[in-house]
Amino acid sequence: MAANNSLAGDDFLLRKVQFVVLQSLVMIFLFINLLLIITFLKKEYFYTTARYILFALTLLSDSFLLFMSDILLIFTHFHITIQVWACIIIFVVVLVYITVTPATLAAMTLERYVAICMPLRHGELSSTRNTMNCILIIHGISSVPCILILSTFLASASLSYYSKYQFCSVEVFMLYIWQHNLRSALYQFQFLIMSIIIVFSYIKIMKVAKAASGDDKKSSKKGLRTVALHGFQLLLCLIQLWCPLIESAFFHINFSLYEIARYLNFLLFYLAPRCLSPLIYGLRDEVFFQALKYIASFGLYKQNLIDKMN
Predict the structure, then answer these.
(1) 129-159 burial, b if ≥16 CB within 10 A, otherwise e?
(2) Cβ-proximal residues to 30 (8 Å cutoff; 6+ apart), any chain
(3) Which among 9, 64, 102, 245 is most buried, taking Cβ atoms within 10 Å?
(4) CA distance 291 to 173
(5) To the nearest whole number, what is the mean pLDDT of the chain?
(6) H or E segment at 263?
């Protein structure tokens, strides 16, 4: 009996430590994103340049999605149930923004393709106006799965179901097997199209890189690395779509295993992909990194590349 109590105590302590570590990582990530967003807003060059505008969109999307997902994780940790109608409100945001970042990655990849493979048309196609229209299209595309999933749920659920208290997860809206299949098919199709865009752009940029020389070759190779990172980021986002299926299986077996699965999935497939965006543009982009160091040092660091932005 004492041994069982000791094991239960160790398990409880381990879960508490995991929770504190994860919350600390989330806070660090959100702070870094806030710093990057402030840097973006400080220079006109950034918010009038297509790739930086799209980068800012990924920062906002990732921060918003991570914040909402973390709230759901906290609910699970403390075994908090909420009424289904409140869960719907939360998941409208989650279901839309789970696709915004991958769709934006595809748009950023196309922007790099145009910049390297069609430099004479880059200024026209990547204008601020076209970028804003692209953002509207991204949100429209991202809303399609949310609308269809919620429509099937609203058509299937009884009125009394909305007042029930449940653990808030996407499984709340999956009343039938065909709804799971529909959700999976929608997201797999979207990510297939995005993957094709990234692979197409990578091949085209690779051809230009082989034929280029000097500064053009260096720029093309950097573009290749950026597109490759976008592809890896997209892969992690795709795996994220399988997380609810894994969590659902554990939920029906053991709640403790379900909690562990949620922690691991959150860390590997929610947090990790969203750490790549700051890496790709916040650190690898020389101009942005110089501006970031200037902001982070409260103006004590003198920028060497500031003239390039004016």
Answers:
(1) eebeebbeebbebbeebbeebeebbeeebee
(2) 63, 66, 67
(3) 102
(4) 44
(5) 79
(6) helix 255-265
Q: Is the pLDDT of residue 305 over 50?
A: no
Over residues 130-163, the pLDDT tens digits come to: 999 999 999 999 899 888 888 888 888 888 888 8
Residue labelled with tokens 């807003």? 41
Q: Which helix (H) or strand (E) holds 5?
A: helix 2-42
Positive or negative, the Cα torsion across 104, 109, 113, 115? positive
Whole-angstrom Cα distance, residue 82 to residue 90?
A: 11
* Complete domains list, the chain, with CATH: 22-309 (1.20.1070.10)
Cα distances from 285 to residues 72, 161, 278, in angstroms, run 34, 50, 10
Q: Supply the pTM of this predicted model.
A: 0.81
Which residues, other chains included, contact 104 with Cβ-Cβ below 8 Å and sequence gap of 6+?
Answer: 54, 57, 58, 61, 138
Q: What is the pLDDT of residues 32-57, one digit of tens each?
A: 888 888 888 888 888 888 888 998 89
> By C-alpha distance, which of 208, 181, 188, 187 is closest to 113?
208
Among candidates 68, 72, 92, which has minimal Cα distance to 81? 72
What distance in Å separates the CA atoms of residue 200 and residue 224, rounded to the nearest whole number?
A: 12
Cα distances from 69 to residues 95, 119, 286, in angstroms, run: 11, 40, 32
- The answer to whether residues 295 and 42 touch, using CB atoms and an 8 Å cutoff, is yes
Amino acid at 286: E
pLDDT band at 281 (very low <50, low <70, confident <90, very high): low
